[in-house]
Amino acid sequence: MNPVDALNEIAFWLERELAPSFKVQAFRKAAAIIAPVDPAELAERAADGRLKRTKGIGDRTYGVIAQAIDGEVPEYLADLRERGAHPLATGGEKLLAQLRGDLHSHTEWSDGGTPIELMVAAARSLGHEYQAITDHSPNLKVANGLSPERLTEQLRVVERVDAEEKVANGVRVLTGIEVDILESGDLDQTPELLGRLDVVVASVHSKLRSDRATMTRRMLGGIEHPETNVLGHCTGRLVQGGRGTRPPSEFDAKKVFAACAANDVAVEINSRPERQDPPDDLIALALAAGCVFSIDSDAHAPGQLDFLQYGAARAVANKVPAERIVTTWPLADLQAWLGKKKG
Predict the structure, then answer these.
(1) C-alpha closest to that of 268 among 300, 226, 236
(2) What is the value of pTM for the model shown?
(3) In this predicted structure, what is the pLDDT of residue 241?
(4) Lower CB density within 10 Å: C or N end of the chain?
(5) Are 13 and 80 in contact (CB under 8 A)?
(6) Of 35, 61, 84, which residue sits at a domain end?
């Protein structure tokens, strides 16, 4: 098989398993190193020892490349495929098959680990009809949030990738942002740029321990902004993982979800296993308020796009009807819903 494909597929399965980032990046880096090399030349370098001496190619990645050059499925990849045959979550299989895409993902432009092209390729391999690229906004400096200038540059890249996908009958690539809801309730990007985007996911990332009234006012400001489409990971909680745990922020959920319903803002069911946000009781409140939902991966690497399995299982467990989930809608209907706020 193609050695670059083998290395990238290994990285995908490791990302899906939440393997340490250094381990994943070893395979992504090796794939990038050999990608420009002609296959015949690569075989020669493997045969005469030059490849093994190449900086960035370790024993494990060299073994994968060598086995792929020999026409074999590398043993390490075969083992990962076997592990990957088991679902990440059960109970949501029927709903998962109805999900058409994902409105929340990150790339190397902010705090993700890979280029836009690799995220889109992974979305295509998973059978998605569309993938939104929603990197962070400037206020989130720790996540390398995009200034207006960088976001403008990224839009050109996304439009190019989308055009290439259209030619190949591939994935529709949607422009977007995960924009911070600032303490004032304003959104952390220029109105002109927000108006150009297909998808705006608005989230709170700072001062999550603010008092209930302050947090409620802040969230209502973001929800009522005319460009907001999705309220991201509404409580900000962490229930497991390398960053430790964090309790949910406190806010008036009835007011927040009533505002989501009134302003046609979807409540995100965030599929990251460390978030599981909103909690079950808040999903019930959002359902009662008449909200629609968006099941999103919040992926920061290609393999994490498959986290939609977790979100689908939680939605089914909480009896969220498929027709109330915008990511099950046909793309034309989704685009019409997203476009309503553009006037």
Answers:
(1) 236
(2) 0.96
(3) 86
(4) C
(5) yes
(6) 84
